[in-house]
Known about the structure:
Blueprint: H1 2-17, H2 23-40, H3 56-59, H4 85-116, E1 128-138, E2 141-156, E3 162-167, H5 176-180, E4 196-205, E5 209-218, E6 224-236, E7 242-252, E8 256-270, E9 273-284, E10 289-301, E11 306-317, E12 323-338, E13 342-353, E14 361-373
Antiparallel strand pairs: 1-2, 1-14, 2-3, 3-4, 4-5, 5-6, 6-7, 7-8, 8-9, 9-10, 10-11, 11-12, 12-13, 13-14
Amino acid sequence: xxxxxxxxxxxxxxxxxxxxxxxxxxxxxxxxxxxxxxxxxxxxxxxxxxxxxxxxxxxxxxxxxxxxxxxxxxxxxxxxxxxxxxxxxxxxxxxxxxxxxxxxxxxxxxxxxxxxxxxxxxxxxxxxxxxxxxxxxxxxxxxxxxxxxxxxxxxxxxxxxxxxxxxxxxxxxxxxxxxxxxxxxxxxxxxxxxxxxxxxxxxxxxxxxxxxxxxxxxxxxxxxxxxxxxxxxxxxxxxxxxxxxxxxxxxxxxxxxxxxxxxxxxxxxxxxxxxxxxxxxxxxxxxxxxxxxxxxxxxxxxxxxxxxxxxxxxxxxxxxxxxxxxxxxxxxxxxxxxxxxxxxxxxxxxxxxxxxxxxxxxxxxxxxxxxxxxxxxxxxxx
Length: 382
């Protein structure tokens, strides 16, 4: 491109030398020089776009945010808060979350650095503290209001495959029926949990099976040593169905060994609903029997604050022969009250236990739960 412009200039110069000094020739020469200057820099020229930027304060004005962001009516945007005991209490709870959540996460980070000898902690620290207050009302039984506390200290060390896990309760120490109906129950109905501590080694079998081995003890005197191994895999059967399988073996010095097999299948069924079917079989060594559970459930996120989950379940055992021990149905409505750490549950349930000749036992559980953690966005469906 540049060469062609120089050729044009040379030709005009020759014409001038031969006497063509007209105004037209001079004009053409100047035009050529002007275009030559443009072409020499043409590779650097790009279109210019003017972006109309708005101040961030205008973008975040209450009138601009979607209605789903608020839990009050638009006309209440600028209303002054009313003095009340509830407002003072809620402000106290909000302050505690801001104060305590960093402390819970910092404890895990400190322990991570202390155990690994590193100056920096690793990410994916899954430590949490859950504090709840639940009330349950049954047929002919007034409501009971009981506190609940659960915790986990999950510490990744400098060895990326090695973790220290301390938790208030372990799955294999809780009866299968209780695990499946956990959200229906309040503290008086649950098995008294015992804190456990373990060192966990993470590995993989192939590219898809996650394997973990835990060696630890129940933290009481005298300690009850245990070992457990868990293998888990997730895969897609086709475009619709997702499958997950888990196999666990464990041994406790006082209770003996046990094994648990769990399998689930899930898929979207339309209109925002997702369907799950899960099957679990467990060997209980101290009772020399199998226990089993079959659960069908669906879930739908109604909006950015609430999830509804209806379930149907059947429980059984192998002694004195294979038989049904209970059936149940429940509906969980979980509402995110504030941010991503304060939740409310409303759970009406019907249970048909064998010991009551399968007569229906109704209950309604209301629970307020605070979830203190350093995670940015825990899944509020759980």
